[in-house]
Amino acid sequence: MNNKIYIVTSGEYSDYGIDAVFTTKEKAVEYVEQNGTRYNIEEYNIDEEVEKKTQLWSIEFCVEDGKLCEASPTSYDRNKVIDTCFIFDTFGYRKEIPYIRFYVDADAMDSAVKIARERFASVKSNDYIWLRLTRPLFVNGKTQYEIFNIKTNVFTKKY
Fold it and tell me: Which domain holds residue 142?
């Protein structure tokens, strides 16, 4: 089985376009020979194995209704935030909507959201944890929140 495709292209920059796609180089060359020399042939591998690797995801849910707000890969220091969650009340661009953020390792967004949704349900069902997360600390007149580690069940002050 041929694991390559041959794409006939023409133009440059904003005029660049794909004119035809072939499974053999011979067919692509034949197309170019019939249509002129202004075409290029590009060769690509297809159906390569995709290496699955995990990455750190930031998953946010609305505190009130549990709806997904955002899911995105993040470059935060994994060692500081992995398997943690905390609630934002009046920070950032969602000043009107309190939301909870989870940091999870997963190989894809849907897996990360599923893990975070299960953790959200677990955290919300524990009154002690939920009350501590939703009640900010007031230190020296400033509002501070705690980070909760899902794996170790330990709270850490966030300064």
Answer: 55-157
